[in-house]
Amino acid sequence: MEQRTATTVFESLSSGVRLDVFRLLVRMGQEGMVAGDIAAKLGVPPTNLSFHLKAMAHAGLVTATQEGRFQRYRANLTLMSDLIAYLTEECCAGQTELCPTVNASSICTQC
After folding, report:
1. Alpha carbons 85 and 70: distance in angstroms, whole number
2. Phi and psi (nearest 5°) for 13?
3. What pTM, to 2 d.p., does this model score?
4. Are 107 and 84 contacting, i.e. CB atoms less than 8 angstroms apart?
5. Beta bridge partner(s), residue 63
6. Residue 67 burial by Cβ neighbours in a 10 Å radius (0-12, 13-18, 19+)
7. Terminus of the chain with fewer CB atoms < 10 Å: N or C?
8. What is the pLDDT of residues 5-60, one digit of tens each?
9. In what order do the strands lie in the sheet with 62-67?
């Protein structure tokens, strides 16, 4: 992962609403959620949520697929795993025996 990509992801997640949405979608895994259900679950007005989902999609954090008249959103779990790897790739200056185990595949079986 490039620093620019990581910065874009962190900038997008710096909003409390976006962080809540992302965590909810991570919890839902590949099933994802339609926008109306996300709005209801988080108590966010739909027009407000739409703005945040668009920004998150632009950052690559979520994907959207059309299902009839609804959009189903899913967290980009691959990007999440890549970000974790990027953050930990130089953990403990290469002395891996000093590092806590941080393995994206052990965190998320759907990644």
Report:
1. 33
2. -85, 0
3. 0.84
4. yes
5. 74
6. exposed
7. N
8. 999 999 999 999 999 999 999 999 999 999 999 999 999 999 999 999 999 999 99
9. 33-34, 70-75, 62-67
